[in-house]
């Protein structure tokens, strides 16, 4: 198994080190190659995805990413922003399907921003289309009309792109509780009208899955009103970006949540849902569990090693049950630990 490790920026190298320790403890035949992606690559080469890193990414079976970006690079030209490296990997490898689970561990119920009786048992999977929509539409443009500035970008999807992500979402729902909610804005956007039409056309192919539809503004409200009504949500790139972060906070900390971005052959890039947190970088305070759980998703989705993925997930569950907490999920009376100590606890649980 050839794995490209891209630690990235901020806390990325710290949390990545713990995930790699856990993977090596499984004693699987893995080959690791490290690539510079993001702000660190901009500093070193002027390019957020230099040619050498792009080569490693293309040749790997899977990519494990830490985090990219930070205020340090906010004033950079668009093509030298750290996030451009991430977007280029998604587009280059055609990683069109993003899986973002939002799972509330029982031990973290009090850390949620909602009452425990509303979020207890929460387990949602958001399937987000990742290579279309407004992020990959017409290049951003600003025009001046009558002395006033206007910003433009084009939101678009082809029928084949919608059909492709729809099939992935239906298949995901089949493996869970067989309920799929498609989120759009069809009452306003023509693109969303096409989205809904294609989802309805796909429905007869999956008679065992219950399909429902919801407008995105209502979906945002329902996630905080009654989140357990959802099983699998499928939506476009921009809506998915927003809703998945909202769902993440229901679980108590975005520092707990992994993600997977997959192509049609299950090659994937795996990364925590959180950012680079430059304010705590280098202090040993970051929560590595989302990155460790991303490594578990990698074993499951790219390498079909469900048993090993489950071992990691069970170890994380055990660590939480034993009271270990990094600062983002800490409660008085529990065991407050740093990044390395949390990694040690997961290894011991393994």
TrEMBL record:
Residues that bind substrate: 90, 100, 128, 217
Top-level class of the enzyme under EC nomenclature: oxidoreductase
Gene Ontology biological-process entries: L-leucine biosynthetic process
Pathway: Amino-acid biosynthesis; L-leucine biosynthesis; L-leucine from 3-methyl-2-oxobutanoate: step 3/4
HAMAP family: LeuB_type1
Sequence similarity: Belongs to the isocitrate and isopropylmalate dehydrogenases family. LeuB type 1 subfamily.
Protein's recorded name: 3-isopropylmalate dehydrogenase
Gene source species: Pseudazoarcus pumilus
Gene: leuB
């Amino acid at each position: 198994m050839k794995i490209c490790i891209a630690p990235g920026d901020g806390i990325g190298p710290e949390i990545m080190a713990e995930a790699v320790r856990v993977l090596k403890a499984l004693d699987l035949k893995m080959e690791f190659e490290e690539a510079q992606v993001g702000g660190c690559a901009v500093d070193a080469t002027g390019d957020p995805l230099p040619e050498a890193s792009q080569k490693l990414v293309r040749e790997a079976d899977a990519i494990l990413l830490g985090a990219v970006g930070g205020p340090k690079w906010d004033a950079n030209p668009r093509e030298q922003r750290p996030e451009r490296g991430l977007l280029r990997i998604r587009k280059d490898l055609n990683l069109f399907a993003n899986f973002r689970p939002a799972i509330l561990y029982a031990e973290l119920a009090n850390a949620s921003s909602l009452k425990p009786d509303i979020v207890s048992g929460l387990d949602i999977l958001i399937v987000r289309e990742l290579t279309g929509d407004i992020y990959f539409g017409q290049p951003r443009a600003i025009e001046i009309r009558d002395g006033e500035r206007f910003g433009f970008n084009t939101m678009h999807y082809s029928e084949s792109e919608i059909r492709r992500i729809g099939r992935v979402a239906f298949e995901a729902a089949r493996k869970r509780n067989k309920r799929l909610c498609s989120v759009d804005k069809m009452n306003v956007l023509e693109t969303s009208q096409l989205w809904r039409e294609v989802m309805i056309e796909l429905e007869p192919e999956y008679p065992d899955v219950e399909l429902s539809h919801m407008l995105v503004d209502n979906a945002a409200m329902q996630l905080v009103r009654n989140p357990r009504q959802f099983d699998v949500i499928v939506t476009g790139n921009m809506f998915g970006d927003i809703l998945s972060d909202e769902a993440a906070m229901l679980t108590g900390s975005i520092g707990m949540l992994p993600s997977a971005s997959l192509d049609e052959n299950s090659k994937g890039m795996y990364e925590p849902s959180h950012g680079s947190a430059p304010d705590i970088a280098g202090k040993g305070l970051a929560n590595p569990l989302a990155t460790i759980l991303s490594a578990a998703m990698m074993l499951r989705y790219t390498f079909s090693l469900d048993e090993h993925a489950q071992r990691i997930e069970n170890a994380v569950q055990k660590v939480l049950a034993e009271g270990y907490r990094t600062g983002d999920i800490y409660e008085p009376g529990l065991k407050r630990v740093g990044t390395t100590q949390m990694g040690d606890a997961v290894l011991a649980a393994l």
